[in-house]
Amino acid sequence: MFRRFGLLLILGVLACPLLGQDTLINRLRIRSDSLLRTWQQAVAIANLADSLERERATIGRDTIAVGALRIITNASPLPVRQAAALAWPAIDSLYGSAAADLAERPYFIRAVDPDSNARRAVLHVGLEVPWDLDLRSTTTLLLTTVPIAPPDRALATWLTGVLRPSIHPREDVGGVYLEFVTAPSQAARGCFMGDIASCIDALGLGDTNHQLERWYPSAPERRAVVTGSFADFFDHGGSAPALRECVAGRDASCTALLRSLPADVLPKPLSDAARVSLVRDALRLGGQDAYRRLLRDPEAAIADRLAEAAGVSVDSLVAGWRNAALAARPAPVELPWWAIGVALGWVTVFAGCGLSSSRWRL
Amino acid sequence: MVMYKALLYTQWKWARLIILLGTLAGFSLPLLSLQGAARADRGALQAQDLLRAVQSWGTLYPLLAAALGLLVAIATWTADHRGRHVHALTLPLPRWRYVLLRFAAGMTLLAVPIAAVSVGALLAAFTATIPSGLQAYPLALSLRFALAVLVAYAVFFAISAGTARTAGIILGVIAALVVVQVVASIANLQLDLVGTSQVVLLQGLGPLAVFTGRWMLVDV
């Protein structure tokens, strides 16, 4: 009898910390549930406020519809309809069938008098635009603020932003050519020389392990990245000695410094503009439903998503994109013939001034 | 022709130091701008390094062109100004022809540094290792330099040929522009005379437009 009691007592003593642990877990769970409820309430209130603000923004406004674009704006000389007519084909050709969703996501544009300092009611949605904006600027505004739903986190991170229609397509692709030639990375250089695997690496579409060595394989490249992009950042505290060693030529220090950075901070060999131009190529190849296919599976690898959107293999897509970039090489440094004529004309004019100087008049 | 040769000879005597130094500088500039930048051991960095070096050195071409134009134009007229133009007045030729011969002689002398830049640029372009994707533009650069030298020479020739009164009028116009700009800024008026003058002089059809733009011996 006494033994049983002793056993129960020992079990009870041993169970005490476990009970305490259970209490702690329960307490944390209750706290996290409470936090979740508060967050949900905050989101609901924010949505309500947003909805009320949108309601307020639409009062007394007209809705202009061009294609699937809906623009809620006040009466003004701003050429909104004409700009929408110019912007819609570019938006439609980029997003394809997904552009139809824009009917549910209108622009809110408040055209204001640029010469007035009168106080206006503050709106927290949409854009406030001076009504003397010309057609070109208004079109650019519509193209750069397309209210398309933001892409999933993985695509947004890879793109570093939202995909918008190009305003200067030729210049954008020409910029990629410049990056090919001048990027301080063997991956970008290899891409320029025709190695598609290097292109895939430089675009961050391949294996992301050992990205530092893939993007910047040689010691001078790594040193150039550290000294060019992170010299100020590393020149403090514990990393300062390593920076000095790196600058002096010790590759291990450069590599260690670059490895200490978060993965997404390492400078990309080819910029976000190059990635955006690749996505645009994929959407162009893929036709009307390409954008929907691109967004269909957020869990898939970006390379697979692009291939799915374009309807071709990622190698073909990247090869075509590279060829387009090479074809868009910027115009070489040349003096146009008219500039030669202008310069010679001015030489003649100034020589004439010298000849007809008042000094020679008797 | 005899008169031209005589004037060319005298101008050569007055401006030979300027011409020789300008020729040396013009020949060296393209060679220095490509010196050592395109080394094979630089790997993927060589194109960027080369462009950076060429761009840095490129700022010296318009400066050299302007300096040559200024100094040769001044040297052309210094002796005449010093002698109060008595010698010119004694010559058996009309005044306009005398000025034209002076102008032509100055331009002939300036052909030497222009040729030096062309030879230097061609030599540098043929001997340097230029990374793929980049190209050398020795002829375009030489042509731009030649035009810049001629424009600078013509401008300063006209100013030097003018009287003190002409110079005063030019300076007065510039001063008036500055004063109006300052007054406009104080009165909070949307008037940008300096910016407008800059556009008129340096862009499009402006007289100094040839000095702007990219002075690149090597570019994409």
What does this structure look like?
The complex is a heterodimer of chains A (362) and B (220). Among the domains of chain A are: 62-149; 167-327, no CATH class. Helices cover 61% and strands 6% of the residues of chain A. Chain A has helices spanning 2-58, 80-95, 135-144, 153-159, 169-182, 186-192, 196-202, 211-215, 219-229, 231-234, 239-247, 251-259, 272-286, 290-296, 302-310, 314-327, 337-355; strands spanning 62-66, 69-73, 107-112, 127-130. Chain A has 17 helices and 4 strands. In chain A, strand 2 (69-73), helix 2 and strand 3 (107-112) form a beta-alpha-beta unit. Chain A is mainly alpha-helical and 362 residues long. Chain B is mainly α. Chain B folds into 2 domains: 2-162; 163-212, no CATH class. Chain B contains 8 helices and 2 strands. A two-stranded antiparallel ribbon of chain B has the order 1-2. Chain B is flat. The chains are: A mainly alpha (362), B mainly alpha (220). Chains A and B meet through helix 5, helix 6, helix 9 and helix 17 of A and helix 2, helix 5 and helix 6 of B.
Short description:
The complex is a heterodimer of chains A (362) and B (220). Chain A is mainly alpha-helical and 362 residues long. Helices cover 61% and strands 6% of the residues of chain A.
